[in-house]
Design goal:
Elements lengths: L2 H19 L3 H12 L2 H13 L16 H16 L19 E3 L2 E8 L2 E10 L3 E6 L2 E8 L12 E3 L12 E8 L6 E3 L4 E5 L4 E6 L16 E7 L11 E6 L3 E17 L2 E10 L22 E13 L2 E16 L9 E6 L2 H5 L6 E2 L12
Parallel strand pairs: 1-10, 8-14, 11-16
Antiparallel strand pairs: 2-3, 2-6, 4-5, 4-18, 5-9, 6-7, 7-9, 10-11, 12-13, 12-15, 13-14, 14-17, 15-16, 16-17
Helix pairs in contact: 1-2, 1-4, 2-3
Length: 376
């Protein structure tokens, strides 16, 4: 959608909405941006509205009264930001922003805020971790796990599209809604930064998409660029300072690091503690680094951490090709606050998911046994 058509439709909606409902400025901004569907514009404008605590009401608008200028100015601001370099969205690593049906781990999703009238503004991109099945209202459901801070459950839960949301009325990429989140919105403690997406009209495969250049030691890329999920592991203290784990996420693709601590207390903000988490580094002992690229970046949230191993290999002509399996260990959350160079990563324990929402009787999906042909 061009900025011209976006501004024209946004202005029409804004005037109609203001005339009908007398909204707060924050409500009006959210409704306008729902039309434009530009993530960072919405984030910037709603941040301004919330933090300035603009609570005044618009009176009913007649187009030629003075207050109309305020709404026109607001729409102009939307368009100017939309067309300017202020809009920033980190590009996805190649392959991660493609549509995948059935769904697999690691790939890009876009989250749209749920409002009382339906989908509102885009909250940005996250990644999928691993698939699950669960029971809701005595009925079996399919789901996918992502990071808790990606999802809010108000108004029936955020809307999720894969790989991205199209226009406001386009539901072709819609995959489900976020129905559970363990993120302590408003402050507090949690032992999990995880969320559950209830899938609608789509299924999944117990695989993780991989693309990238960073592999540890003699590890190689999987010939199909997707690894089969064969199990889920609870981290133990003997993994610290020796176990190599991989991450797949939409922004940095496949990266890896060494587990430094499995009971790390993560403070993403001054009033939130997530514990226990797994702290992982690409620069062990601060003496050398496995590679110089970021271990993760914004948008990787919700991606999956796993131990990678060879299921099968064979020689084809002069080349040897490999099929890999994955033992899931974590959900990507972010990084320690002190880490400004994206050397370290923080992940929630994957096995906490079934403990957190025991009422849903969650089952973790696998592709088959450890060396099964179905996992290649």
């Amino acid at each position: 959608m061009t900025s011209y058509s976006c501004s024209r439709i946004a202005l029409t909606i804004a005037l109609d909405f203001a005339n009908t409902f007398d909204p707060t400025l924050e409500d009006l901004l959210g409704y306008v941006i729902a039309c434009c569907n530009r993530n960072n514009t919405s984030v910037i404008l709603l941040y301004i509205a919330k933090n300035l605590r603009v609570k005044f009401k618009y009176p009913k608008i007649v187009f030629f009264v003075r207050r109309t200028k305020i709404i026109i100015l607001m729409i102009t601001l939307v368009v100017l930001i939309y067309d300017s370099s202020m809009i920033f969205a980190q590009n996805a690593y190649p392959g991660y922003d493609q549509p995948y049906r059935p769904l697999i781990g690691g790939i890009q999703i876009e989250i749209t805020k749920a409002a009382w009238y339906g989908p509102s503004y885009s909250k940005g991109f996250c990644s999928l971790a691993f698939p699950v099945s669960f029971t809701e209202n005595n009925s079996g459901k399919l789901g996918f796990i992502t990071a808790g801070h990606c999802i809010e459950t108000d108004n029936g839960g955020d809307y999720v599209d894969q790989p991205y949301k199209g226009s406001w009325w386009d539901w072709s990429n819609f995959i489900g809604r976020g129905i559970r989140s363990s993120w302590p919105y408003g402050g507090g403690n949690s032992d999990l930064d995880g969320a559950l997406i209830r899938l609608e009209n789509t299924g999944y495969e117990a695989f993780i998409y991989e693309n990238g250049t960073h592999y540890f030691g003699s590890d190689r890329e999987d010939r199909n660029h997707k690894v089969g999920i064969t199990g889920y592991i609870t981290p133990t203290k003997d993994m610290e300072r020796k176990t190599i784990v991989y991450k797949s996420g939409r922004t940095t693709g496949i990266t890896y690091g060494r587990i430094e601590q499995i009971d790390y207390k993560w403070y993403p903000t001054s009033n939130i503690e997530i514990s226990p988490t797994i702290r992982i580094t690409r620069c062990p002992d601060n003496q050398y680094c496995f590679y110089n690229d970021y271990i993760s970046y914004y948008g990787d949230s919700g991606g999956v951490w796993y131990i990678r191993y060879v299921i099968y290999s064979e020689r084809i002509d002069v080349y040897r090709v490999y099929d890999y399996g994955a033992k899931i260990i974590g959900i990507h959350n972010g990084k320690p606050d002190y880490d400004k160079a994206f050397v370290e990563a923080v992940a929630s324990w994957a096995t906490k998911v079934s403990e957190k929402w025991s009422d849903l009787k969650i089952s973790y999906a696998i592709c088959g046994s450890e060396y099964s042909l179905s996992c290649r």
